[in-house]
Backbone:
Protein backbone atom coordinates (compact mmCIF):
# COMPACT_ATOMS: atom_id res chain seq x y z
CA UNK A 1 0.00 0.00 0.00
CA UNK A 2 1.09 3.56 -0.60
CA UNK A 3 -0.44 7.00 -0.24
CA UNK A 4 0.80 10.46 -1.15
CA UNK A 5 1.11 12.95 1.72
CA UNK A 6 -2.14 12.61 3.70
CA UNK A 7 -2.73 9.36 1.83
CA UNK A 8 0.13 7.74 3.73
CA UNK A 9 -2.25 7.50 6.69
CA UNK A 10 -4.72 5.68 4.44
CA UNK A 11 -1.97 3.27 3.44
CA UNK A 12 -1.05 2.59 7.06
CA UNK A 13 -4.71 2.08 7.94
CA UNK A 14 -5.23 -0.33 5.04
CA UNK A 15 -2.06 -2.10 6.15
CA UNK A 16 -3.41 -2.52 9.67
CA UNK A 17 -0.77 -0.38 11.40
CA UNK A 18 -3.24 2.29 12.59
CA UNK A 19 -6.87 1.80 13.58
CA UNK A 20 -9.42 3.66 11.44
CA UNK A 21 -10.73 5.87 14.25
CA UNK A 22 -7.22 6.76 15.39
CA UNK A 23 -6.24 7.66 11.83
CA UNK A 24 -9.23 10.01 11.55
CA UNK A 25 -8.18 11.79 14.73
CA UNK A 26 -4.60 12.10 13.49
CA UNK A 27 -5.45 13.53 10.08
CA UNK A 28 -7.90 16.02 11.63
CA UNK A 29 -5.26 17.27 14.06
CA UNK A 30 -2.64 17.28 11.30
CA UNK A 31 -4.83 19.43 9.08
CA UNK A 32 -5.55 21.97 11.81
CA UNK A 33 -1.89 22.17 12.80
CA UNK A 34 -0.80 22.69 9.19
CA UNK A 35 -3.42 25.41 8.74
CA UNK A 36 -2.15 27.23 11.82
CA UNK A 37 1.43 27.00 10.59
CA UNK A 38 0.35 28.29 7.17
CA UNK A 39 -1.40 31.32 8.66
CA UNK A 40 1.76 32.29 10.54
CA UNK A 41 3.78 33.10 7.41
CA UNK A 42 3.16 34.16 3.80
CA UNK A 43 3.96 30.98 1.91
CA UNK A 44 2.96 28.90 -1.09
CA UNK A 45 3.97 26.10 -3.49
CA UNK A 46 4.84 25.86 -7.17
CA UNK A 47 4.99 22.88 -9.55
CA UNK A 48 7.86 22.80 -12.04
CA UNK A 49 6.85 20.70 -15.03
CA UNK A 50 9.79 19.40 -17.02
CA UNK A 51 12.23 19.78 -14.12
CA UNK A 52 14.53 17.17 -12.66
CA UNK A 53 16.14 17.45 -9.24
CA UNK A 54 19.14 19.40 -10.56
CA UNK A 55 16.99 21.97 -12.38
CA UNK A 56 14.77 22.39 -9.34
CA UNK A 57 17.86 22.93 -7.19
CA UNK A 58 19.10 25.62 -9.58
CA UNK A 59 15.78 27.47 -9.30
CA UNK A 60 15.89 27.24 -5.52
CA UNK A 61 19.46 28.53 -5.33
CA UNK A 62 18.66 31.43 -7.67
CA UNK A 63 15.71 32.52 -5.54
CA UNK A 64 17.41 32.14 -2.17
CA UNK A 65 20.40 34.20 -3.29
CA UNK A 66 17.96 37.08 -3.81
CA UNK A 67 15.60 36.39 -0.91
CA UNK A 68 17.94 36.25 2.05
CA UNK A 69 16.63 34.54 5.15
CA UNK A 70 13.67 32.95 3.40
CA UNK A 71 12.80 29.28 3.02
CA UNK A 72 12.45 27.46 -0.29
CA UNK A 73 12.84 23.71 -0.77
CA UNK A 74 11.78 20.89 -3.04
CA UNK A 75 8.64 19.50 -1.41
CA UNK A 76 7.43 16.79 -3.79
CA UNK A 77 9.28 14.60 -6.25
CA UNK A 78 6.09 13.34 -7.86
CA UNK A 79 7.30 11.81 -11.12
CA UNK A 80 10.05 12.17 -13.70
CA UNK A 81 9.76 15.75 -14.89
CA UNK A 82 7.60 17.02 -12.03
CA UNK A 83 9.03 18.65 -8.91
CA UNK A 84 7.08 20.89 -6.52
CA UNK A 85 8.74 23.75 -4.62
CA UNK A 86 7.54 25.01 -1.25
CA UNK A 87 8.44 28.02 0.88
CA UNK A 88 8.03 31.74 1.43
CA UNK A 89 5.84 33.30 -1.25
CA UNK A 90 8.41 35.82 -2.47
CA UNK A 91 11.09 33.19 -2.98
CA UNK A 92 8.66 30.71 -4.52
CA UNK A 93 7.32 33.24 -7.02
CA UNK A 94 10.83 34.32 -7.97
CA UNK A 95 11.86 30.70 -8.54
CA UNK A 96 8.79 30.17 -10.71
CA UNK A 97 9.62 33.22 -12.84
CA UNK A 98 13.23 32.09 -13.24
CA UNK A 99 12.13 28.56 -14.14
CA UNK A 100 9.78 29.83 -16.85
CA UNK A 101 11.90 32.63 -18.29
CA UNK A 102 15.42 31.25 -18.04
CA UNK A 103 15.03 27.46 -17.91
CA UNK A 104 11.98 27.24 -20.19
CA UNK A 105 10.06 25.08 -17.74
CA UNK A 106 6.34 25.28 -17.10
CA UNK A 107 5.84 26.76 -13.64
CA UNK A 108 2.40 26.42 -12.07
CA UNK A 109 1.58 28.21 -8.82
CA UNK A 110 -0.55 25.91 -6.67
CA UNK A 111 -3.75 26.95 -4.91
CA UNK A 112 -2.69 25.84 -1.43
CA UNK A 113 -2.89 27.34 2.05
CA UNK A 114 0.84 27.21 2.76
CA UNK A 115 4.27 25.69 2.27
CA UNK A 116 3.61 22.04 2.97
CA UNK A 117 6.47 19.55 3.31
CA UNK A 118 8.90 22.34 4.16
CA UNK A 119 10.65 23.59 7.32
CA UNK A 120 7.84 26.16 7.67
CA UNK A 121 5.67 23.26 8.88
CA UNK A 122 7.89 22.66 11.93
CA UNK A 123 5.24 23.93 14.42
CA UNK A 124 2.73 21.48 12.93
CA UNK A 125 5.25 18.65 13.09
CA UNK A 126 5.73 19.26 16.82
CA UNK A 127 1.98 19.06 17.47
CA UNK A 128 1.66 15.95 15.32
CA UNK A 129 4.51 14.35 17.23
CA UNK A 130 2.67 14.84 20.51
CA UNK A 131 -0.46 13.24 19.05
CA UNK A 132 1.43 10.31 17.56
CA UNK A 133 3.13 9.63 20.88
CA UNK A 134 -0.29 8.81 22.32
CA UNK A 135 -1.48 6.77 19.34
CA UNK A 136 -1.26 2.99 19.25
CA UNK A 137 0.66 1.87 16.15
CA UNK A 138 1.45 -1.70 15.14
CA UNK A 139 3.53 -3.43 12.51
CA UNK A 140 1.95 -3.23 9.02
CA UNK A 141 0.48 -6.50 7.76
CA UNK A 142 1.72 -5.67 4.25
CA UNK A 143 4.43 -3.38 2.85
CA UNK A 144 3.42 0.29 3.26
CA UNK A 145 5.74 2.79 1.64
CA UNK A 146 7.03 5.82 3.54
CA UNK A 147 6.88 9.09 1.60
CA UNK A 148 10.16 10.45 2.93
CA UNK A 149 12.26 7.39 2.04
CA UNK A 150 10.45 5.74 -0.86
CA UNK A 151 10.91 2.44 1.01
CA UNK A 152 8.59 0.26 3.12
CA UNK A 153 7.95 1.32 6.68
CA UNK A 154 9.77 -0.73 9.28
CA UNK A 155 7.76 -2.83 11.73
CA UNK A 156 8.94 -0.67 14.65
CA UNK A 157 6.09 1.67 15.74
CA UNK A 158 8.53 4.40 16.78
CA UNK A 159 10.07 4.37 13.31
CA UNK A 160 6.62 4.78 11.76
CA UNK A 161 5.92 7.74 14.06
CA UNK A 162 9.21 9.37 13.09
CA UNK A 163 8.58 8.98 9.35
CA UNK A 164 5.12 10.58 9.69
CA UNK A 165 6.55 13.52 11.65
CA UNK A 166 9.38 13.96 9.15
CA UNK A 167 6.91 13.97 6.28
CA UNK A 168 5.55 17.39 7.30
CA UNK A 169 8.92 19.15 6.92
CA UNK A 170 10.64 17.00 4.29
CA UNK A 171 9.96 16.21 0.63
CA UNK A 172 7.64 13.41 -0.39
CA UNK A 173 9.41 11.05 -2.78
CA UNK A 174 6.44 9.59 -4.60
CA UNK A 175 8.46 8.80 -7.72
CA UNK A 176 10.78 6.68 -5.56
CA UNK A 177 7.77 4.95 -4.01
CA UNK A 178 6.44 4.02 -7.43
CA UNK A 179 9.87 2.89 -8.59
CA UNK A 180 10.11 0.63 -5.56
CA UNK A 181 6.79 -0.98 -6.41
CA UNK A 182 7.84 -1.45 -10.02
CA UNK A 183 11.27 -2.89 -9.20
CA UNK A 184 10.35 -5.16 -6.27
CA UNK A 185 7.38 -7.35 -7.26
CA UNK A 186 8.60 -10.07 -4.90
CA UNK A 187 7.84 -7.67 -2.03
CA UNK A 188 4.90 -5.69 -3.32
CA UNK A 189 3.18 -8.44 -5.29
CA UNK A 190 2.18 -8.77 -8.92
CA UNK A 191 -1.05 -7.55 -10.44
CA UNK A 192 -2.94 -4.34 -11.04
CA UNK A 193 -2.65 -1.27 -8.83
CA UNK A 194 -5.85 0.42 -7.72
CA UNK A 195 -6.25 4.12 -6.95
CA UNK A 196 -8.76 4.49 -4.12
CA UNK A 197 -8.92 8.27 -4.01
CA UNK A 198 -11.40 10.30 -6.09
CA UNK A 199 -10.04 11.18 -9.50
CA UNK A 200 -7.09 9.71 -11.38
CA UNK A 201 -4.21 11.97 -10.37
CA UNK A 202 -2.02 9.20 -8.98
CA UNK A 203 -2.85 6.92 -11.89
CA UNK A 204 -1.52 9.59 -14.25
CA UNK A 205 1.64 9.97 -12.18
CA UNK A 206 2.10 6.20 -12.11
CA UNK A 207 2.01 6.07 -15.91
CA UNK A 208 4.86 8.59 -15.98
CA UNK A 209 6.85 6.45 -13.55
CA UNK A 210 6.11 3.15 -15.30
CA UNK A 211 5.30 3.34 -19.01
CA UNK A 212 4.09 -0.26 -18.97
CA UNK A 213 1.02 0.74 -16.95
Residues:
Amino acid sequence: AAGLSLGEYTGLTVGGAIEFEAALELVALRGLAMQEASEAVDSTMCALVGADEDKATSCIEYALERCKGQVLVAANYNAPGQVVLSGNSEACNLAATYAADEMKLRAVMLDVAGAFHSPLMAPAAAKLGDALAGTSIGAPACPVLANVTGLPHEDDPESIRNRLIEQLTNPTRWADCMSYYKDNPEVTGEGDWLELAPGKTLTGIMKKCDRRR
Observations:
- The first strand starts at residue 43 and ends at 49.
- The CA atoms of residues 30 and 128 lie 6 Å apart.
- The beta strands are 43-49, 72-79, 82-88, 106-109.
